[in-house]
Amino acid sequence: MPKKDNRIQVILECTEQRESGVPGMSRYITTKNKKNTTQRLERKKYNPYLKRVTLHREVK
User: Fold this and answer.
1) Model's pTM, two decimal places?
2) pLDDT one-digit tens code per residue, 17-39
């Protein structure tokens, strides 16, 4: 019996950069288990445009 694939790819986008108006866009691609994690992901990742760690949220 084949295994069900519950993992999907999601894109994380910086929230601070969108509000500040700095040119460029910091995005990361990761995977999540859609069965266990139904809410949108939030991770702290490095933003090379702002040169610091910022909050990145999942976009649809």
Assistant:
1) 0.80
2) 888 878 888 999 999 998 998 99
Tokens 């976009």, residue located: 59
Torsion of CA 25, 26, 30, 33, to 10 degrees: -80
Closest CA to 29 of 11, 15, 13, 44: 11
Q: Does domain 7-59 have CATH number 2.60.40.1570?
A: no
Euclidean distance between CA atoms 57 and 39, whole angstroms: 11
Rounded CA separation 57/37 (Å): 14
Work out the angle at residue 20's Cα, subtended by the Cα atoms of residues 18 and 38, and round it to the nearest 5 degrees. 35
